Amino acid sequence: MAIYTTNEFKSGLKIILDGDPYAIVENEFVKPGKGQAFSRVKIRNLKTGRVIERTFKSGDSVEGADVMDVEMQYLYNDGQFWHFMDPQSFEQISADATAVSDAAKWLKEQDTCQLTLWNGVPLSVSPPNFVIMTIIETDPGLKGDTSGGGGKPATLETGAVVRVPLFVQTGEVIKVDTRTGDYVSRVK
Amino acid sequence: MSPGRPWQPAASLATLRLRARLLTAIRAFFTARGVLEVDTPALSVAGSTDPHLDSFVTCHAGPGQQQGQTLYLHTSPEFPMKRLLAAGSGCVYQIAKVFRNGEAGRHHQPEFTLLEWYRLGFDHHRLMDEVEELVTTLLAERLPLAASERLTYREVFKRHVGLDPQRASVTELAACAFVHGIMPPPHMPDANPDPWLDLLLSHCIEPKLGQGRLTFLYDYPASQAALALVRDGDPPVAERFELYINGIELANGFHELTDAGEQRRRFAHDNQAREANGLRSMAVDENLLAALAAGLPACAGVALGFDRLLMIAAGCSSLTDVIAFPIDRA
Question: CA A72 to CA A105: how far, in whole Å?
Fold first, then answer.
């Protein structure tokens, strides 16, 4: 396993601390006038997402975390786990609810997602930035309204609820930005 | 040809013009006071023994040095300037490029510009007066400044973290850091309080110092005397000071140690600390020791980080905003 000294600290570096994987968010070199130099870092816990501050003496080293991002195809949910497949090796991996978290509502079978793996186990799942989904339920809008102003809630095939313009109807297919949860357009 | 190369200066041309104006103003300030500008070498046969400084090392090969001579880039021009003082130069100042390996960050560059000066017959209080005059002159009309303040090292610790830095045990210092939201770093010593004091100072105190004004910290623990005189007392204190503006450390000064024997003991003590930390011990500067033995006049001296001063004057937040070609463009 890689060992990193404070000289290698930079934003994005993955390290292990107290048994958990972290990503360095920010690193500041601090040194009082004539004294001990420190690396003061903000780090994000890759399991919980929580950001904390830590300080290391300059020159100290920490263990690197074997964390990598991979693209995988979403297959199905068995009620407990979400199953993904590596499109090259066809190797399958399952992710639990903690890792999938809020991404669950954007997961559509066969879409390509990004999984962050730690020692091969999923820490988190990011859905594609844009997904195409069918509306399974929305109130009929007012006839002739094409302004899009106001909008109304619409439930998608995965259960996600987004605000759509009044003219969009049940059964239509729409494009949604998963980062914001915003409706983008209708898809023919 | 690589069109993406960052060949342009990192600092704006307006900032570089301000840099030149401040340098001119510094020279005028010292000329008016009869302080002599000097120019001493950046290369020396002796590197710094300071356990917290890492000298760049290079090799001189040439006529008379066919085996190659190890030379160090200076971390400050202090020693040759003291040799000039011992030789009868009178008060001197220098604007020098200095080099410190391993230091890089928003407020650190491995190569930077230091303004260093020595005043005969001054103690650290009189020198603080002069630092205040120079810095307020240079910052006048660029930055509104409240009245300057001077606090002892002990006072700022009591005020900001509520403990006596010279009496607290390592256990108390570690607990204090924890209470202030600082998880104690791994591998901190359990017998030496100084790194713990440095942790508290750099994390909890420095960011609060000199907000909109000049704050001088003075009378340091004797264990942090560096090259300052230690004044007897209970506890004894080092006649050393530092200047802060907007949380940034700007200058470090000493009522200078002039005793050659004591200087040799401090070098030896430094080298013991280096070895304890797994660092190479450094050959001591025998030229400095010989000059002290010949007689260094009583004096006070200070080194001021010119780039940091310019950063404050220009309202910038990083040294890379005020240096034409910082290390990543060198």
Answer: 17
Token pair of B227, please?
């090259």
pLDDT tens digits in sequence order for chain A, 188 residues long: 799 999 999 999 999 999 999 999 999 999 987 899 999 999 999 988 899 999 999 999 999 999 999 999 999 999 999 999 999 999 999 999 999 999 999 999 999 999 999 999 999 999 999 999 999 999 886 655 555 567 899 999 999 999 999 889 999 999 999 999 999 999 97
Measured between beta carbons, the chain A residues lying within 8 angstroms of B106 are 28-29
Q: Which of A34, A53, A57 sits opposite B50 (nearest CB)?
A: A34
- Give A-chain residues touching B247 at CB under 8 angstroms: none
Calpha distance A15→A22 (Å, rounded): 5
Nearest-CB residue to B206 (from A32, A34, A56): A32
Any B CB within 8 A of A11 CB:
no
Report DSSP letters for B296-323, one per residue.
PPSEEEEEEEHHHHHHHHHT-SSGGGT-
CATH 3.30.930.10 fits B13-148+213-321, yes or no: yes
Ranges of each domain in chain B: 13-148+213-321
Shortest distance, CA B65 to any CA of chain A (angstroms) = 34
Tokens 């975390």 — which residue?
A65
